[in-house]
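JOB MANIFEST
job_type = single_chain_structure
chain_count = 1
residues = 465
[input]
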Amino acid sequence: MGSVMLRRLVFGLGLLSATMLSHAAFAEGARTLQIIVSKDKQSLVVYDGENVVTTSKVSTGKDGHTTPSGIFSVLEKQKYHESNLYSNAPMPWMQRLTWSGIALHESNSVPNYPASHGCVRMPGAFAKSLYQMTERGAHVIITDAPVVPQLIENANLFLPRKPLPTGPLLSDVQLRTSSIGGSSKPVDSKPVEVAMNVVPNNPSIVHPTTDARPAPTQPVTAAKEDVAPLRILITRRGDRETLMDAQVLLQQLGFDTGGGDGFAGPMTRSAIAGFKRWKNLPAKGALVTPEFLDSLYETAGKPRPPMGQIMVRQNFQPLFEAPVGIKDPEIALGTHFFSVDKVERKEETAEWHSVTVPNGLSAAMKQRLGITVDDDPYAPGAAAKALARIDIPADIRDRIETLISDGSSLTINDQGIGTDTGDGTDFITITQPVKRVAEAQASITKPQPVSQRRTEAKPRAYGLY
């Protein structure tokens, strides 16, 4: 408790005299802060757990340059930066949220309405104070209506585990299927081998190894309390993971796919075409079809992987990923963010907080993911209900719990990794307002006259200003 009280005292002193304290004074609690921006209220609130540290008015993106909503983290900090898009406009105390041009920064124009080109503008004194109390990796959530972190206790959340006394620290655990539901049957012992490869310019696509050989084991060392926080994403397995698995199985059957990167390059396409000819499957149509996958797994003698995927990053770099189970996959999981504080490894205890962020999925995405029932982000216990549907293999849980530290976070979403997640980022989730998605779907169902569409069309652009 002493360290927690000291941290909050430091925050209080910092707010009274931000210019007198260096960034180092905030280091103890910086990694557990959450910054929540409400576009509806044009406000910013800094939380430490569920406690409000400080607040400020802001100005977000104006019409045509709307600030994206979602879950972000601070990727880069510069005391002074100039916009490379808008006439070298000054951006003091800049904290970057995406490499595509969204940031928090000081501005001399912070009206009580959206006015920026996509960034979050803040008054000068507050921008400097916030800059001093954060570090790279600080969590930032941008929503329409305000959301508030809630204390949550759930058996499916990770708790710190003492380091293993002997043997490897699960440096390359086997990835296995998980039993879903209340079945008493043992889990199939056959491993589900997932392609392990780093794709150039897209390090979010990564696994620990590139083939079936075990990775070198690492000696166990005592867990350090200052270990970098983990960033964890649980989502649905998408086309990338499906193709990566197919590439591995094809290679095991003697076909050359050119690697297991999850991209359908010429060699992968040739390998799939060769397998289809071998099994007398239709050559026309989609490259990866249910019939192709059924035949591939049956021929390889491998079980189908579960519906979900867990991905782990640390220090803005991929660490590992593995399949996980999702119960009732036809129901949307929703979008939920969890952060951990007060990690006590000796006692194996920690304190988690959750935020549920409304996120509309398009009809096309729901069809692709097999979702027929929407989630209700406003239902009591929505985050806990999503957690209860996730089945994480014990070895994967052990590995995470041995590494978890203050400031680690978990995101659950349906849509997977977006284009903003990449080199030098944490997991970035871009959300869409439910109302906006519904209106867009209605406009597709009932097209407007061409002349009206041209009149109402508005450009969408982001920029550092």
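[summary]
The first strand starts at residue 33 and ends at 38.
The mean pLDDT is 80.
exit_status = 0
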